[in-house]
Amino acid sequence: MERQMDLFDIRVGAEIVAFPIDRQLVRVRRTARQLEQRTGALAEKFWKTECNRLYARLQVQGLEHAEIKAELDRFADAVRIEMERALLARRAKEIQAG
């Protein structure tokens, strides 16, 4: 007879996989909106603070430096694309308004 696995057996390991930050649409959109409201040094400071915060969070989750850098690069791309999307949407609205 086969023994049933004990779900509360702490010897059974599990790998925690973090949800990719570039897929966290609310975070991407919020960051894009915040950047759109800032210019120059203020925008740069906000961006560095946000990246440092994300780096620390991913580090605590156990990711290595290379993995974190890749995550942050994908996040930066997602924010840039969101900012471009929002700009095109505003322009389209202006054209439709005449």
Automatic annotation (TrEMBL):
InterPro entries: DUF6074 (IPR045720)
Source organism, top-level taxon: Bacteria
Identification of the protein by name: Uncharacterized protein
Species per Swiss-Prot/TrEMBL record: Pseudaminobacter salicylatoxidans
